[in-house]
Amino acid sequence: MNTQIQAVLENIEKVMIGKRGIAELCVVALLSKGHVLLEDVPGVGKTMMVRALAKSFDAQFKRIQFTPDLLPSDVVGVSIYNPKTMEFEFRPGPIMGDIVLADEINRTSPKTQSALLEGMEEASVTIDGNTLKIAQPFFVMATQNPIEYEGTYPLPEAQLDRFLLKIRMGYPTKEQEVEILRRAENGAPIEKIQAVLSVTQLVELQELVLGVYVEDSVKNYMVELALQTRQDSYVYLGVSPRASIALMKASQAYAFMKGRSYVTPDDVQYLVPFVFSHRLMLKPDARYDGVTAEEIIERIIAKVPVPTKRFAEQ
Amino acid sequence: MKKSFGDFIELTIAYIIIFFILREWLVPVMELTNTGLLHLFLVFIGLSLALSLFEVRPLLSGIVKIGYILWFVVFAYSGNPVFSSETMPFIFSEMKWNVTAIFSGDFGEVSDTFRTVLFLALIWMLVYLIHHWITVRMNIFYFFALTVFFIATLDTFSDYDGSVAIVKVVVLGLVMTGVLFVKRLLMKSDASHDLLSKWKMLVPMVVMVVMVSLIALFLPKAGPTWADPVPFIKSVTGQGESGVGEKTAGYGEDDSQLGGPFNGDNTLVFTASSRDRHYWRIETKDLYTSKGWVQSNAKVSADSYLNNEFIQTTLQVGKPENEQQIDMDLAIPLPFLIQTYGLKSVEANEETVYFKSNQTEKILTKQYTGEDKALLSYTLTYSEPEYSMQQLRMSDPSMLETLNSSYDRFLQLPNSLPRRVQDLAIELTEGKETVYEKIKAIEGYFARSGFAYDKRAAAIPGEGQDFVDQFLFDTKIGYCDHFSTSMIVMLRSIGIPARWVKGFAPGNTGSQSDGVREYRVTNDNAHSWVEAYVPGTGWMEFEPTIGFSGTVNIDYDLELDTDLQEEPAQQEQAPKKPKAEQDTKKATSGSSLNFKAVWTWLKEHPYVWVGFILLVVIVLIILFVQRKKWIPKMHVRSYRKKEADWSTFDSSYHVLTKQLSRIGLRRKDGETLRAFAERVDAALETEEMKKLTSVYEQHIYSKQPQDVDFAKLKESWEYLINRTIG
């Protein structure tokens, strides 16, 4: 385990109980410059997770609450005429933060959604013809509530592709929930945690992740997994090459977090469901047969042979 | 762990089953030893089981049991009430008597009282053992199997009828085995131990056993495939006793009713000291009655000879330089000679007249006065005849037509002989040019046509049924009389003179000294065979009976080229050549033929091949079955020598995964090495596989593997390999 990341995770754990796996995945996305879609009902700690993460890095935390009447300019920012200087002055929107929580992203209109997603993908925003770069670290955690459908604009598949990982939060166990109450008894624990890593250090780590070695046989394995999703009989549209890239990036970050300088198939297998599941478009048959994307991925993992030799020796 | 009520119930059931199984042991023992008071013994078994079921303290349980034994003995043997003044003196006197008997070594002197005590003590021990089996080992299978074996054996070898007992034992034993298996299963798995889940497994098992038993009970059953082994075993162990209506092996005069089973009899008839193996000839018979053999009333003369006088027979005599002697030593004095082929003269210590009937070829021993004289020992001088193959090849069938009328009696056949016997003979000899070949064709027919040799299963021909016809076409099971008679009848039916010879087979070989071997001939060796007339050669012996090999000595003088010489020899004579002849042949033909001789010998003894191949197959099977034991050991040895580097590590890791797959730990396609290693470590209770795997992972997935301690890895590797063996 990388010691710096270990410290971050331990810091988060002070606030989030029993959510080590989720925290790890968030850190993986952060390290590989990706974004996370958190799908779950309200109140299970989505916001707390992002805030803890932001606080651990001493990063700027911004939050956008998506509502049907939210406009793109509310997200990216707006130019306002300043009568004193007789000039338009740019007021940056909340997307210009380091770590952004986009709450209930499916509640807003597609126009506003795409403004956010463009910013996520390009790491830049365009206002009045001027393109502004968003500085690293830039990490968006979007949440969506899978229960309510009325008055929502579900994200199209093409846009879901922009998220590196889709994570389900899940309820805590009984013991964990009791522990949560115990910690919340004397004030919110989030206020007590301190930054363990600076933003600069985070950017350095992001650079180090790129140096994690992916042996060709493992790359081959990743591509084979992607190919299999395109051939599955339940899948209408398999994952794109962008998904393969995402899988590799995430695997590198994961291996780095685990303190390794190379990716193993274990990393890949662990991450595949989080990377692929929201990118698969299933046929209606799948829904009739009660087959979920996760199950299809599980089957593919069991089927594709794990490389046990170097690519050159195969 | 405190026993639950369910456990107790279960144990009680087990003990009840055991009680009934033990009862099946006790009943035949009581029955066969004429012991009474079965119920008292059963009470003792019940008592012992109950004491062990309720886990009564050993001391108390011992006192109870000893008390019961004493009461039993007093009750059964003294005839007095237990609490009478006689009881103590009785016990003491018995003790004194038996202790004295034992210390003086007179084990036969111990009284029944003592034996009963010992028997009860044995039951005590048995119950203790069963208790151990049930509660500790939870496996009663050996006891169960032993019980089945015990009852089967008693049923076979004694008067006890176990046909009901065996059913009871099998049902009880299977239920018991099942109950204990379920128990073991639940112990091993962490399944809940509640009564319900146990019964869920037990009830179907019991239902299954009962159903199978019921079905088996009511289904029609085939009779025994094997003949009753008792007579055979009795004959081997020398307890022969002739049953009613059955014949006993041995030489007898009356052969008018052949067929039917007969019992073995290993009474020694005579011992012969000889250099060669012989068929012991006594007499011939010529008239076949369709049921057996009698003597025709042909008018043939008789001759008489004295000691050392040359005896003229119808048989060939070998060259004078091959003359040998046999010392005959009879266990029972017989009033006739036991002859060999090539007999020249006889010498007895006493003055004897040898009275030879030319009709039967039997040589009676008589005194000068004409009275029968039974000799106990004499010496036979003989020269083993050699039949020339060249001459045999010249035996043209047309020569048979010119035979004079004295041979007519050897062509006699009953009118009632079914036509198909002759048809078969013609079919068998079709295309054979010479008489000799025809004879050999019929002689060899039995061995290759599904006939079986059986002394017990032979049938007796029914009214109006021909003995030969029945054997050839219906039963195909019989002993020497069947084979020899059938061959003769077939030979006669195609015009070849043949006669029936009675006597003894060579016998069991005993000690050997100076090339002279002792042949012990018993009643079991009584035998019959065939003599057929080959034109140009004369009378020759033939042996159609399966499992016997004749002693005929053929000189393969056809051509001098050795290659061609061996060829017909094997075809025609191979299975018949006795070993003695082999040896002489080898000696004369010189060392260059040794390999050939070995090869011939091997050809003649296909069972050696079969045995050898079987051995190889067995060895291969053992090697295959045991491969998970020896292959890794070889690998360990070879890797110890190899240099420790990445390539060695790489191949050794693969060897290990292969070995793991042999013991059932196979990596699935989609399973990563680490997941596999965790599974292996869990199964073998180690941590080594994870260590090895993390290094191997680094080796195959990383850019540049770091330095590792190969010595330590090797240790882990060897440890794992050894784990897979152990």
Largest sheet, strands/sense/barrel of chain A: 5 strands, parallel
Tell me the greatest interface.
A-B, 22 and 14 residues
- Measure the end-to-end span of chain A: 30 Å
CATH third-level topology of the largest domain in chain A: Rossmann fold
CATH architecture descriptor text of the largest domain in chain A: 3-Layer(aba) Sandwich
Shape of chain A: globular
Q: How many structurally independent domains of chain A?
A: 2
- In what order do the strands lie side by side in the largest sheet of chain A? 2-5-8-1-9
**Assigned CATH class of the largest domain in chain A:** Alpha Beta
Poorly predicted residue ranges of chain B: 240-245, 560-593
Residue fraction in strands of chain B = 5-15%
**Secondary structure category of chain A:** alpha/beta
Shape of chain B: extended
Structural class of chain B: alpha+beta
Average pLDDT, all residues of chain B = 79
Low-confidence stretches of chain A: none
* Cα end-to-end separation of chain B: 31 Å
Pfam family, one (chain B): DUF4129
Region (Disordered) (chain B): 565-587
Transmembrane segments (chain B): 12-30, 36-54, 66-83, 113-133, 140-158, 164-182, 202-219, 607-625
Domain Transglutaminase-like (chain B): 472-546
Could you characterize the architecture of this molecule?
The complex is a heterodimer of chains A (314) and B (726). In chain A, helix 2 crosses helix 10, helix 9 packs across helix 10 (241-257) and helix 11 (265-276) packs antiparallel against helix 13. Chain A is of the alpha/beta class and 314 residues long. In chain A, 45% of the residues lie in helices and 16% in strands. The longest helix of chain A is centred in the C-terminal third of the chain and has 17 residues, at 241-257. The mean pLDDT of chain A is 85. Chain B is an alpha+beta fold and 726 residues long. Chain B has four domains: 5-218, no CATH class; 265-388, no CATH class; 394-503 and 511-608, C8orf32 fold; 626-725, no CATH class. Chain B is 50% helix and 14% strand. Chain B contains 23 helices and 21 strands. Chain B has a six-stranded antiparallel beta sheet with strand order 9-12-8-3-18-17, with no helix packed on it. Chain B has a four-stranded antiparallel beta sheet with strand order 4-16-19-20, covered by helices on one side. In chain B, helix 1 runs antiparallel to helix 2 (38-53). Residues 240-245 and 560-593 of chain B have low confidence and may be disordered. Classes of the chains: A alpha/beta (314), B alpha+beta (726). The interface between A and B is medium-sized, with 22 and 14 residues.
